[in-house]
Amino acid sequence: MTESIEQLNFTVASCPSAPRSIAKGSSLADLLGPTAIHYLARNIELVFDEFDSQAFITACQAAPSVLALMAKGQFLAHTLHQHLPKHYETAIAILTDTLIEPDHHAEEFGLAGFFYLPHSFFIAEFGRDAKFNSGRDPFDISMTAQYELTQRFTAEFCIRPYLIEQQARTLETLSSWRTDPSRHVRRLISEGSRPKLPWGKRLPQIIKDPSPILPLLDYLKDDESLYVRRSVANSLGDIAKDHPERIFDLLDTWQSGANKDLKWLIRHAVRYYAKKKHPRALELRELAR
User: Fold this and answer.
1) What is the per-residue pLDDT for 139?
2) Cα–Cα distance between 230 and 213 in angstroms, integer?
3) Interatomic CA distance for residues 233 and 267, integer angstroms
4) For 85, which DSSP code?
5) What's the Rg (C-alpha) of the chain?
6) What is the pTM of this model?
7) For residues 88, 93, 98 and 99, what is the CA-based torsion angle, rounded to 10 degrees?
8) Cα 151 → chain centroid
9) Are 189 and 183 in contact (CB under 8 A)?
């Protein structure tokens, strides 16, 4: 049973619980159903007393029932834009203030994190153009918002339009986060710049020429967190689909003197071609045992 906004009497930011996996007959879009919308409205109420929760909830109820998860997140982001202050910096400050405290011990956020998918789309849709920010460039504001968001959910989806439109500037920001104490921030560097991220926009310039992100992946290959190293391996696997010899050459330089963690990363990065019995992939896997 969905709780009404009146029943949600928590006084600090909160998220609805979520299952560990989606039950048969359910949809991922259910993660952004009525309960999540009520929680979202209540969280905003707590930090912005001018927010009309009931009008927002009513507007959200107009979402077509056939929307899949990502489309539902996009719909809710646009609905937020209609009910929050039109000035982007003001609106994103409100949304950032609704975030729960980060869990620095969590490796992954699971399905519960998708509660923040509308926030991600809000940054992606309204945080790139000065016209939504009274003519002022919102880039730095959006980078800060993504830095905060990725410690509660992920910013790998919303950072991609920035990489497409302002690649050098965005990569400079990502590079500055390489030594951040949060594994979630460090993982955003590799996962956000991953050329063919599942569910995410593809990055045509990086697909064509991965050179700009290779130094970042090289730095992160020795990260203390498997969560980050797995992301590095997945990004290398994406790149290898278009530039196999280049990645084979790079991994060949890494395998000499590699520890067990880096050897695992190398094996994981070439698994696509190893399944296809590519000689160099098989050789790299054998050397990295």
Assistant:
1) 98
2) 16
3) 9
4) -
5) 21
6) 0.94
7) 100
8) 10
9) no
Kindly give the interhelix angle for 88-97 and 117-126, rounded to the nearest 10 degrees. Answer: 160
Exposed, middle or buried, 27 (CB in 10 Å: 0-12/13-18/19+)? middle
Q: How far apart are CA 52 and CA 54, in angstroms?
A: 6
Distance CA 17, CA 189 (A): 28
Residue 228 · residue 248 · CB < 8 Å: no
| Model confidence band, residue 8 (pLDDT cutoffs 50, 70, 90) | confident
Q: Which three-class secondary structure state does DSSP give residue 238?
A: helix
Query: Would you call 229 exposed, middle or buried from its count of C-beta atoms within 10 A (0-12, 13-18, 19+)?
Result: buried
> What whole-number distance in Å separates Cα of residue 2 and Cα of residue 272?
44
Alpha-carbon distances of 258 from 84, 134, 176, 263, rounded to whole Å: 51, 51, 26, 6
pLDDT at 10 over 80: yes
Position 107 scores a pLDDT of 74
Smallest Cα–Cα separation from 88: which of 142, 34, 153?
A: 142
Indicate the length of the chain as a whole number: 289
Phi-psi region of 110 (alpha: psi -120 to 50; beta: other; left: phi over 0): left
Comparing CA positions, the residue from 203, 131, 125 lying closest to residue 171 is 203
Q: How far apart are CA 161 and CA 180, in angstroms?
A: 23
CB neighbourhood size of 2 (10 A): 11
Q: Cα–Cα–Cα angle for 265, 167, 77, nearest 5°?
A: 95
Q: Which two tokens stand for residue 199?
A: 């569910």
Q: Are 43 and 12 in contact (CB under 8 A)?
A: no
